[in-house]
Amino acid sequence: MSSSQNDELLRQATEAAREGKKKEAQRLIAQILENDDENVKAWMLLYRVTDDINDKRIALTSILQIDPSNIKAQEALDRLEAQQGDGKGKTADDEEVAPGLKRREVMMIVGGGLGLIVVVLMVVFVIIQINTQRENEANNNSTQVAAAITNAVIQETALVATSTAAQETAQAIFLLTQTATFTPTNQRGQNLPTEIPPTPTEGPSPMPTALIFPPVSPNSVLLGWGSPDQTDDDQAPIFALNVADGQYRLITPGDKGMYPFARGQNRIVYSQYTPSSFDFTTSVINLSTGEDRLLGLDWEGTPHIFFNTRYPYLSPDGNQIAFIAKADGTATDEIFIFDYNSTLPGRINRITNDQFFYAYPAFSPDGTQLIVLRYNQNELVGGSDLFIITLATNEFRPYTDTGPEVIETMARFSPSGREVAFVADNGMDGSNDIFLRPITGGGADVTLNISNHPADDIHPVFSPDGQWLAFASNRINPRTYQIYVFNLQTGQTYQVTNENDDFFPYSWYEAN
């Protein structure tokens, strides 16, 4: 496998980790390490996304075996040992790579360079085996270590939130009035908790088995992707779903796509992935004419060539499209804005040009800011955080500061512009929850877990009036995601799809 193929697999693994697709990210990381057991970035990703101490230790010690001068890996390992309280005097060579077998002993037996290969291949082997030979885990102690690794892959840590129904109601009142005082369910700051509470042993989900639809406007429409035609790369036809009754129609029945967005005008933007070329393209559907046109045709004549254009997001007036892409000659995913009102060659405005990777840009309600996930793939401890960009000045302000400890993603401004909803690990079982946090700085940094469920909750989408929040969750069937709608005033949750395949929301508008 070529270096460029490994780079693409690493990008896909990183993206899968951001979106909570643990099995997919695990499979991709295993492929990388199977073909390149000295891929430091792959080991870095494994370290960042697991909350299991032993798995973190394996990743860090593997990095140090590959690159003994990696100061950041050594510092991270030292911090890890200090957190455990029993790490004094221990070195990487003292770590057990299998029960009863220390790394030092492996190195003594087979020699330094060969020892590294043995250790790396052992870990890669068990990661791959877990997908096909789980029944053999009890055969020996080595596969027990493998189970510990793979059970924890792609889990973020330290975002502990224990919301109650009363707190959710108080938070909802805050959304509507901005005057109520409520109790924070999670304090975010520099000092994150080092222990994770056990997964709560709560009863069955309170969600109704028969669908009871929310009392929303009959013109409320959710755009998303899903249907029985979904492919292995998570693409599916784009649908428009009536939130009031759960009926939906396919907008692209013969096509596949992801991330559809509309403002209620005649324009729908969405992305499409081509597996054969590892490339995303972005298209625009004109609902009046039915034309489905590649966005790239509209910037012909500009000095830009793009690859992997995705995550399109329309401005409030519908005249601009923020998107993520690799520009010709760059290796990172950057932010661009396409402006329908500008003339060539000024239709494209490049917002970022640095060493970071970006994802999920979203406009503020007044169109003056973007909130975006920024990720440093080349840094062990740089991590990923949400940033707010003021477009007039290109000023970047960190909105979260958890670094490598937590991956926050899929952020959206509320219609009032006073809060942001985003997805992050719930700190209990590796699944994601949806959190809400005020936009203003200063004072108590209050972050509320508003979904607070053991299942995986992703893709939050505000209703245009700000009273509802749609999201996807696998809380009924762990193998499929359905769409739910949460009332921010009453705290009640409604299930609005009940299909045998995944359905994901991405934008909400009022039809004319």
Explain the overall architecture.
With 512 residues, the protein is of the alpha+beta class. The protein folds into 2 domains: 3-152, no CATH class; 165-510, 6 Propeller (Neuraminidase). 24% of the residues lie in helices and 28% in strands. The protein contains 9 helices and 26 strands. It has helices spanning 3-18, 22-35, 40-49, 53-66, 71-84, 103-110, 112-132, 141-152, 165-177, and strands at 96-98, 101-102, 220-226, 238-242, 248-250, 258-262, 267-274, 279-286, 292-294, 306-314, 320-327, 334-339, 348-350, 357-363, 369-375, 384-390, 395-398, 409-413, 419-425, 432-438, 448-449, 457-462, 468-473, 482-487, 493-495, 503-510. The protein has a 4-stranded antiparallel β-sheet with strand order 5-4-3-26, with no helix packed on it. Helix 4 (53-66) packs antiparallel against helix 5 and helix 7 crosses helix 8. The longest helix has 21 residues, at 112-132. The termini are far apart. Mean pLDDT is 73; it is low at 86-208 and 441-445.
